[in-house]
Amino acid sequence: MEVGSSNPSDNQSSGCEADSASADSAFVNEDDDVVINTFYPNLRPNEKREMLMADRLSRRLLAAKGDSLEEDQILEETLKLVSPVASPLKESFSRSSLRSTGRFRNMFDSALEEQERAKSRVQWMGVLVIFLAAGVVALVGYGLLVLEASPPLQPVGPYRLIERQEGESLLGSYTFYVGKDSVGSNGFNYYVDEDTAEDLGIVNITMEEDEMDLLHVTKENNGLDLLKDVYYNKTDGRRLQSAHNTSAENLSRKSSRQNRTSLEKRPFVYIGSSATQAGPRNSIRLEGNRRFDRGLFIMDVRRMPAGCGVWPAFWLVDELNWPVNGEIDIVEGVNYQTEAKTALHSTRGCKMDDIPLGTMSGTWDTAQGIPDRDTGIPDMTLRYAQNCFVYEPHQWLNQGCVAIDQDGDSIGVPLNEKGGGVYVLEWDPINRHIRSWVFSPHTSVPENLILAIRTAEKDVADRVMPDPEEWPTPYAYFAIGRGTNCNARCFKHMHLVINTAFCGSVAGNRYHIDCTAEQTTKFPTCRDYVKSNPQEIQDSHWKIRGIYIYEREWERTWIT
Predict the structure, then answer these.
(1) Is the peptide bond before 323 cis (omega within 30 degrees of 0)?
(2) Gap between the Cα atoms of 166 and 163, Å rounded
(3) What is the distance of C-alpha 269 from the center of its chain?
(4) What pLDDT is recorded for position 25?
(5) pLDDT reported for residue 110
């Protein structure tokens, strides 16, 4: 048998190229049955025919070599040459071939169309991305131009309350320092922790009627006149010098005559000291938990430590970076001194010899008799203490620049006899100044400041914010910042400190100057006097109604 000459593949190949009609007519030749039975003996007749038809069609399509027009012609001719008397198998094959071929071609065409659409989308996406990027660049450029042209953001707006320290919140805003006084202060005392202080009874919080609430009443109730009755003797206009005249009981009695209800009780913080057998007193030093670079600091105090050998202070400092970050003494009492002072201590490069006239009501402390470093001969030239440098050779060591309240009776014993007062320090480097006020008695506190303190406990919308421009001229004014002789960066990153020291480098050095002859005669040194535990030192303590801290809102302005 010549298998090669009767190979259906050979016949199909020659027939597809010479005469497609004769090739397709082979689907009905009976001789094909022999070929099918020879090569596919195990298939059913219908399956054998379908395979042979599919094989021949495939060969013709392959012979077209990718010519889509010829492929279409082959398919059309093949499917149209099915005999009208064709068997159901042939009709089934034709229908299935048509469906399959159509489905494949549709899928192919759809894929091509989707590819074209994808390319189009990618192109448009690229254009869109470029457009958006250009827009972003334009917006950023415009924003930079606007920022460049607009004023810078600076803290120059109205004040807002950031801390209200009263009662428990006051003590909670500070850490109790434990240990000896610093080497520079060298106080004759030991600072104890909170638990020890409570056990010793030298720190506590009491709830008392606040006579100052009478200032925060309507004019119809004439509350201000009631309070003035307490501080002034109406018959001769002189200030009363007895502490009991300013008591809440006295005010309540007066207010009862005016049909007023009893005053609400408020928290007061007491901070004192106690004697020890060794001599140095147990005392308290509170160090603030928050650091500041600016702010408005208000202390409403009803009593402060006073007496021979006593050295209380309310101040701002960064101990670990002293004097690099500076120091600002807001309130500092020494022995029997009666004039409030505000002092600045810094590194070299801060002088107050350029203070504009009319900016302060106080005067400057003086320095005289400073020993010459080389010869030791005292320099009797009288100079104002206007150099804040702690080692200025023509001032006392660490004297700093010191402004003094000329009205007097604003610290110590006179302050306590008047029922205390309100101290305010404004540290405002953007506006290029540090200013200080003291208001004592409380009847002299400006209405705006009274309302700010009394409404600090209310919601923000109901608070009155302090406005120093509504107050009298400050007794202290220090020029800092650009255009002045003091770099504003001399004072930064400081926290509040409240403490009471005894003797030491200030009160101790002035013991024979400030204390009485009887005291200095009986007790040769300040430490001897303090160790004797006199009654005036036992009674010496802070009584603080509250501390209120504000900072200015940030606004855009051309102030530079």
Answers:
(1) yes
(2) 10
(3) 28
(4) 39
(5) 63
Handedness of CA 510, 513, 518, 520 (dihedral sign): positive
State the DSSP code for 71: H
Query: Tokens 């009471």 identify what position?
Result: 500
Beta bridge partners of 379: 370
User: How far is 245 from 251, CA to CA, in rounded Å?
Assistant: 8
pLDDT for 87 equals 44
Looking at 483-535, which runs of residues are DSSP E strands?
A: 495-502
CA pair distance 229, 279, nearest whole angstrom? 43
Residue with tokens 């010549």: 2
Predicted confidence at residue 43, as pLDDT, reads 64
Q: Give SS3 for 355.
A: coil
DSSP secondary structure letter of residue 110: H
Measure the CA–CA gap between 170 and 286, rounded to whole angstroms: 10
**Three-class secondary structure of residue 366 per DSSP:** strand
Query: What tokens does 337 get?
Result: 């001194």
pLDDT tens for 137-149 read: 767 666 655 556 6
The C-alpha angle with vertex 408 and arms to 346 and 234, in degrees rounded to 5, equals 150
In our burial notation (b when 16+ CB lie closer than 10 A, e otherwise), range 425-445 reads bbbbbbbbbbbbbbbbbbbeb
> Which residue, chain included where needed, has tokens 């007794």?
475
Question: What pairing do the DSSP bridges indicate for beta strands 281-283 and 421-428?
Answer: unpaired
Say how many Å lie between the first and final Cα of the chain, rounded: 112
- SS3 call for 111: helix
Per-residue pLDDT at 70: 77
Count of C-beta atoms within a 10 Å radius of residue 85? 7
Structure tokens at 83: 């005999």
At 2, phi and psi to the nearest 5? Answer: -95, 90
- How many CB atoms are located within 10 Å of the residue 130 CB? 10
Q: Rounded to whole angstroms, what are the CA distances from 486 to 235, 346, 361, 387, 479?
A: 49, 10, 21, 9, 7
| Calpha distance 93→27 (Å, rounded) | 12
Predicted TM-score (pTM) of the model is 0.71
Which parts of the chain sit beneath pLDDT 50?
Answer: 1-30, 81-101, 104, 108, 218-220, 222-249, 251-260
Tell me if residue 40 falls in helix, strand or coil.
Answer: coil
- Hey, which residues does 439 pair with through a beta bridge? 422
Q: Which two tokens stand for residue 531?
A: 């160790």
Closest by Cα among 246, 252, 180, 158 to 448: 158
